[in-house]
Write a structure and sequence with these properties.
single chain, mainly beta, 4-stranded antiparallel β-sheet, 3-stranded antiparallel β-sheet, 7 strands
Length: 89
């Protein structure tokens, strides 16, 4: 497992990535993130899932994650990050 931290630098207020459904039980879809790095972090900022997005719409299986709130961090090739709150039911 990789442990990292959430940073407040280079964070975009513009959200062009869509994550749905949210809340989710077993999986969710990420739209518009092709070529970006996607991470899920717990409330302590630890990276618990990481993936390079290879298409515009990808389904992410979250069945193994504990119920609660997580943070989705999407990093573009320019280093700008988008942060989304995810709820796992």
């Amino acid at each position: 497992m990789t442990v990292g931290s959430l940073e407040a630098q280079n964070v975009s207020a513009h959200r062009d990535v869509k994550i749905y459904p949210n809340p989710a039980t077993n999986s969710f879809v990420i739209g518009g993130a092709n070529g970006r790095e996607f991470q899920i972090c717990n409330v302590f900022g630890q990276v618990i899932y990481k993936k390079e997005m290879l298409s515009d719409n990808e389904t992410i299986n979250i069945a193994q994650l504990a119920e609660g709130i997580c943070i989705a961090l999407i990093t573009g090739t320019d280093g700008v990050k988008e942060i989304h709150k995810l709820v796992k039911e």
